[in-house]
Write a structure and sequence with these properties.
Blueprint (H helix, E strand, L loop, with lengths): L27 H30 L6 E2 L7 H4 L4 E5 L9 E6 L15 E5 L3 E2 L5 H9 L3 E6 L14 H18 L7 E6 L3 H10 L6 E4 L5 H8 L7 H5 L6 H6 L4 E6 L10 H9 L5 E6 L5 H15 L4
Parallel strand pairs: 1-5, 4-6, 4-7, 7-8, 8-9, 9-10
Antiparallel strand pairs: 2-3, 3-6
Amino acid sequence: MPPQKPKSSPRIYPPRPTPELPPEVVDPIWLLKALGISFAAALLCAYATLCLLFYQGEWQLILHPTHTVDRTPTTVGLAYNDVHLDSAETGQPRLSAWWIPATPTTGFQPGYATPTILYLHDGSGSLSDTMPVLSLLHSAGANIFAIDYRGFGTSDSSHHPSETSMTEDTAAALDYLTATRHIPAPTIIPYGTGLAASLAANLAHTRPRLPAFILDNPIPDPAAIAVAAHPSHLVPVRLLFGNQFNIATPLASLATPKLLISGGPTAPTPQPDPNALQSLFTHAASPRTTVSLPDRNTSQAYLQTLSQFFDQHLPRR
């Protein structure tokens, strides 16, 4: 056997020296961009929060309810019955209303059914503020049913009023008249003032059996009120306000007979823009009756206008 060669040990190489890398330098432009993006995101979040807060409280720009109702004889001046609709378990009425029946001395024209006015007051105050116009309507020989929406007067105030809740309240009031008091729908006329004009028009649209409706000094552009109440250019008030209480669109297509009143003893202060109001009336669908009354000494003309409108659109007995 030939002799074996001795095994050689593995060669060990010395470690290679690590090359020195240049120190890492942060680009100041990138740092500034990161700071700018963070600052812009913070501003965007703050602006979105501001718009959200405005959206949640925008109702206060156009609706100004009060929660007191003055019941003194000098203020009320009419015989009325308190009505509470859909009382809650707490005993607090969901809706408070007044029922003012027609009296023999204010009876309507012979041969015609006595009209029942479903009176929808503007978005301010409460029923106490409606007594002057309710007295005029009563002297025209009509039954009157006037409501305080939720959030107004002594009606349920657990939530703030809104277009949605006020629309629901008007529907509930009409259902009460037809289902509880058994008043025929063809003798009920919604009467909306100011912002409530859109509520009356919506009621006429959804309840085609109603013979007519009356709009008393409607607000042509409710969003303009919100813009005037919050004139800041920082928040897009009109965009966030949307189409709340929009009266122009339904009025332009609704074929139900309508009486459109501007001015007169029931005109609000300040009054709507007369040019915008005239344009609103001009574009209203037929049949329509438009009346412009002066501010003073118009009670007789106002009552005559109502009487003629009732004669024309109420059914005979």
